[in-house]
């Protein structure tokens, strides 16, 4: 089990990576043709799917790494680079990326609640990488319970935000949403650098 502050940092990192505020514009666009009951069902499916994906990553991610022979330090570097690319994307071209994701959904026959809202927009590679890396840091039932609790808190936050989308849409401008996305991108970039630095220290201890 880690120090309590580590689990707090993990939760903050997850919120920054998942960026629930940033998904609001595409969520509103994709659900515009549905009534209130259908929107409520979509919101529940999004939250349940994203939460389950991250829980599976927490409990089985390390096993998957071992199966493919990938060291955790290599995964830290790779995950950090991925997060850095996501951060740059969030900082520079949010609107364009949202439009590309919307086009991808329109061309697919999958449920919008699962693809792309739950994955990859929410529980995407960046979030999954973060969960696996933080789950690897400790062991014991208390550690995994606290990791799971953070994921459930994130799921609760997602549910609240999706339930409040009609109110948020009326009171928050597009500029406000983009500013929130860019702040999350800045936090994410700092987290990515830390991931890469820690991974490089593990791979090349002689450099430090």
Automatic annotation (TrEMBL):
<keyword id="KW-1133">Transmembrane helix</keyword>
<dbReference type="GO" id="GO:0005886">
    <property type="term" value="C:plasma membrane"/>
</dbReference>
<dbReference type="Pfam" id="PF01914">
    <property type="entry name" value="MarC"/>
</dbReference>
<protein>
    <recommendedName>
        <fullName>UPF0056 membrane protein</fullName>
    </recommendedName>
</protein>
<keyword id="KW-1003">Cell membrane</keyword>
<feature type="transmembrane region" description="Helical">
    <location>
        <begin position="12"/>
        <end position="30"/>
    </location>
</feature>
<feature type="transmembrane region" description="Helical">
    <location>
        <begin position="144"/>
        <end position="162"/>
    </location>
</feature>
<feature type="transmembrane region" description="Helical">
    <location>
        <begin position="112"/>
        <end position="132"/>
    </location>
</feature>
<feature type="transmembrane region" description="Helical">
    <location>
        <begin position="42"/>
        <end position="61"/>
    </location>
</feature>
<feature type="transmembrane region" description="Helical">
    <location>
        <begin position="67"/>
        <end position="91"/>
    </location>
</feature>
<feature type="transmembrane region" description="Helical">
    <location>
        <begin position="183"/>
        <end position="204"/>
    </location>
</feature>
<keyword id="KW-0472">Membrane</keyword>
<comment type="similarity">
    <text>Belongs to the UPF0056 (MarC) family.</text>
</comment>
<keyword id="KW-0812">Transmembrane</keyword>
<dbReference type="InterPro" id="IPR002771">
    <property type="entry name" value="Multi_antbiot-R_MarC"/>
</dbReference>
């Amino acid at each position: 089990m880690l120090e309590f502050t580590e689990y707090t940092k993990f939760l903050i990192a997850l919120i920054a990576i998942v960026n629930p505020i940033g998904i609001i514009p595409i969520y509103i666009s994709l659900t515009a043709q549905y009534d209130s009951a259908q929107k409520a069902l979509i919101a529940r499916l999004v939250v349940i799917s994203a939460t389950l994906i991250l829980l599976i990553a927490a409990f089985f991610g390390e096993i998957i790494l071992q199966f493919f022979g990938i060291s955790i330090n290599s995964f830290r570097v790779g995950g950090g680079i991925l997060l850095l690319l996501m951060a740059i994307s969030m900082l520079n071209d949010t609107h364009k990326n949202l439009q590309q994701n919307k086009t991808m959904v329109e061309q697919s026959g999958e449920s919008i609640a699962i693809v792309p809202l739950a994955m990859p927009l929410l529980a995407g590679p960046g979030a999954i990488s973060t969960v696996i890396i933080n789950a690897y840091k400790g062991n014991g039932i208390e550690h995994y319970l606290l990791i799971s609790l953070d994921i459930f808190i994130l799921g609760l936050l997602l549910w609240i935000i999706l339930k409040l989308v009609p109110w948020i849409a009326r009171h928050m401008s597009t500029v406000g949403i983009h500013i929130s996305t860019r702040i999350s991108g800045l936090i994410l970039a700092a987290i990515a650098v830390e991931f890469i630095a820690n991974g490089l220290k593990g791979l090349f201890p002689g450099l430090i």
